[in-house]
Write a structure and sequence with these properties.
The chain is built from no helices and 15 strands. It is mostly beta strands. 0% of the residues lie in helices and 66% in strands. The chain has a 13-stranded antiparallel sheet, with no helix packed on it. It has a two-stranded antiparallel ribbon with strand order 2-3. The protein is globular, with a radius of gyration of 20 Å.
Amino acid sequence: MRSLLGPIPICIAALSQKNRYGLISLTLLISQFACAQLVNIETRRMQTDSVRVAAVADTWFNYSKQNEDYVVSASLNGTVQLKSRDLKSIFFLLGNYSLVSTQNQDYRNAWLVHLRFNRKLSQLLRAEAFLQHQRNKLLVIDTRFLAGAGIRLKVLDGSYLSAYLGQSAMYEIESSTDFDQQSHNWRHNAYASLSFSPAGGKVVLTNTLYFQPLYRALGNHRILEQFKLEVPVSRVISLSGSYDYYLLSVTPSGARDMASNLYFGLSFSL
């Protein structure tokens, strides 16, 4: 089962002078939700075998102040997984809230809720359906609602190597307050996930790639790739790191939106 306390992010603080008096501390939160336009659901799934009810939660809060300047940062993540009696159906609920704020500005104030249903049809094939709602006023697209359904293929299931492919269609509603726009689109969702676990599971390497083009305009697409490494130090503590790359080819402004994120942290399992 995944960590009950979850990853503790390593934060980087930058300090600069303000009118030669005081300091402004900007906390750059490096987390799995840094590329908030797209979320890697694959890394949030829980492999619990015959356990019907499983839950994961992690939260942290930080407040720093120097003279009259302060930074407040907080994060709350939770995942609940329910399995049917025959263990073939899975209900998966994920939620996240994150905040980075100073006395003058919010640098992040965002939340996300994702609900997914998975039904095992055979050793190879699963059927999936999902709903997602997210909001972050600081992004170019500040509100997004998704509803979709499709299939998930378990193409490899070895002792050291496993792989999944997913294909689904989804309907999305996106809003941009800054540009006073709202769009309604049908988009394809394709993903591939490959995990390698050598040395008896002591090291886990996972690479996940998402590609989400519009059906009517393939040039309008989103890409998310995440490479993740997990190394258990003991039965309780694990080291983890990941590199995320995100691309939104077309934004409401007509420009591209691209970001990358390097993350290091610790996980605790109880």
